[in-house]
Amino acid sequence: YIFFKRESFAKTIAIGLFLGFLQISIYVLLDMGRGTLGYSGSNYGNFNLIFLAYFIAFFIQSTSEEVLVRGILTRVLSDRFGRNVAILFPSIFFGLLHLGNEGVTILSTLNTILVGIFFAKLLFYKENIMLTSGVHAGWNFSMAMIYGLNVSGFSGFDSLLNFKVLNYNLYDEIYGPEGSIVVTLIEIISILTILYLERRKEVRNR
Q1: What distances in angstroms separate CA 41 from CA 12, 44, 163, 194, one per listed residue?
Q2: Segment 196-202 long-range contacts (CB within 8 Å, at least 24 positions apart)
Q3: Which helix (H) or strand (E) holds 27?
């Protein structure tokens, strides 16, 4: 009912984690390229039990949000009102869930809604909530514990890599990457990619 599949369970999660890591890594590379972030060293000693505990915590948190928003709410709306409503309204709700976070802005809320639309499109494309849970967890965990960047207004993570902000005019100091126009572009491209894959799938199935 909530798009849960047992087949290729670990593989699906791994693919999702990689996609989330890939998205935030592209963001970091782009912000380094435009002079917003600068690499300031590494601390691989942070790869310890606390690091692994954070991974578990991020995965549980992300999966809980996915089950609530992309699982239950999306399924109920899809059954009653169709797919378009089931994509749009849970995505807006997902954005509203973050309004209480520190440093929230109009752009960060828009980006969160876009992330929700991408997750919803991905969910309907693969019909597997563990894939979106993996992407969600991979995004948050990589942002915090690998790159040491703020996650939706939360900061203070002991990450593997360290970056310093070189241009605060292009970086949301409090909310982090999710308050950046670069993330807007990444999510729009991600949504368009799913749309392209859906069209290809439709053509193959004719």
Answers
A1: 32, 10, 7, 35
A2: 197/125, 198/121, 198/125, 201/125
A3: helix 9-33
Q: Which residue has the tokens 């752009």?
A: 107
DSSP for 92-112, written as a single string: HHHHHTTTTSTT--HHHHHHH
Residue 194 and residue 12: Cα distance in Å, rounded?
A: 17
Tokens (6 digits) for 21: 């890591």
CB 50 within 8 A of CB 159: no
Beta strands in the chain (DSSP E): 37-42, 161-165
Quick: pLDDT tens for 43-78.
Answer: 999 999 999 999 999 999 999 999 999 999 999 999
pLDDT 10s digits, 155-170 = 999 999 999 999 999 9
The residue written with tokens 């979106």 in the block is: 132
Instruction: Tell whether pTM > 0.85.
Output: yes
